[in-house]
Give the backbone structure.
Amino acid sequence: MNMTATDFTEYFKQVVEVMENEKDYLCELDRKLGDGDHGVTMSIGWQAVNEQLNNKLADETDCGKISSTVGMTFLNAVGSSVGPLYATGFMRGGKVVKGKSELNDTDLKDFWTAFVNGVQERGKAEVGDKTIMDTLIPFANRLEETFAQTNDFVSAFKEALLAGEEGMKSTKDIVSKIGRSSRLGERSIGAQDPGATSAYFILSTFQPFLNN
Amino acid sequence: MKKLINDGENVVEEMIDGYVKAHPNHIKALEENDRALVSAKTKDDGKVAILIGGGSGHEPAFMGYVGEGMADGVAVGNIFASPPPAPIVEVTKAIDKGAGVVYLYGNYAGDVMNFGMAAELVEMEDINVEMVLASDDVASAPKEQKEKRRGIAGEFFVYKTAGAAAEQGYNLEDVARIARKTNENTRSMGVGLTPCSLPQTGEPSFEIGDNEMEIGLGHHGEPGIRKVPLESADRVADQLLDVIFQDMAINEGEDVAVLVNGLGSTPRMELYIMFRRVEQVLKEKGVNICRSYVGDYITSLEMGGCSITLTKLDDELKEMVDQPVDCPMFVQR
């Protein structure tokens, strides 16, 4: 498949909308584990991104520039821990598609792989720590595996998304080992990680764009 | 929960605006970034600069500690969220007088990443940066995992001693050494009685019964290590002190600074009742209190409860704690 810069921008606009709709749900998840503001933080960040998408990025055709601007805008609006994590992800993703106004299967696979590697490099969390990475690592691993076999991004992404979803759900049953919630110890069991959840939303919002 | 605000989305901007306008002789906002504030007084060339920062909602921390004898600049984040690198970078550039800048902040994942990114960015502009992370909260991780511990109210003593050392002309390495030594010798333990609520959501940060308290809670409304029935102030103080003594031996004849810190909605009356017991216990142990601080120093919006912080002082730290300070929200003569 091929994805144009216009579709790419539209994807980010959809993320803005999803985060706004899921704001209260993410806060609710975070209240069990942290200070209850994950939805607010995501909303602040993506609303700032929305502003850029409608102005500076409205006619941008370089997918790399779109992604890195999204990352930096998000970071400058939120700080926090998700700021540097998502910013690094979108900047690394942006780097591999720099100068491209249309993305083919390989570009798309490379984009998401670089995104996940960037987040991991910044946050240094592993699977099982009860973080964003519990969604992203299984997702990226499955994406690489499946794409290597089929060279088809659409089917590989769908497979990978299922792995990400499983990873997100698995955070319910594990003890938090990193970040503020780690102080809860055993009391963190039973609550799904808000970061793993917002990461899943970012990925799952991409899927509808693959069917077009 | 009720709040005197206009719009939950604008609380940080409106707070900064009011703060800068209330204290024009002490502090000013940088044009480059509205979350970057610096001391209004110009410092001598060659003085090491101190940069502090963190999320909003901890007032008077962190911006209240910019002034003579404490910090030279502050980067202000969203509520309970680390500031991004941009305001940290702008403050650094504004306060560096050629002798380097010490970043003092709490050991939280977000702060570590954002301050770390900022430090990388300013190094490219040939500014030397030292980073010291406060990690005084005994409840946030066991002793074997001390590197995971967060910073809470004890951060105040790190600012105090590092700020004094910088004012006295210590070099970058020595200011950082003083800050690290203070952190090494500081332990805090908190208790929560009632939750706070974020201005954007109005929802309580945790649930707690009328007759319950959370021992060891963090200062962002994170739940504590255990929920137990509320007891008398003396019994609560004893429990908090026991945990501190188990973690850091304080022997007869040693000197300490004490901070009984309110979390936002606990009256001074209760804080002094807590301090009264702390003084009794330390006296029984033959420990000498050099300086005591009682009040709201690092808060969590309207959370109820308090923390006790003890910092062991050698002669060098004692001298630093004693130095005068003139900040908008904290003065010591």
Q: What stands out?
A: The interface with chain B takes residues 24, 27, 31, 34-37, 40-41, 44, 75-85, 122-123, 178-185, 187 of chain A (CB under 8 Å). The beta strands of chain A are 3-4, 102-103.
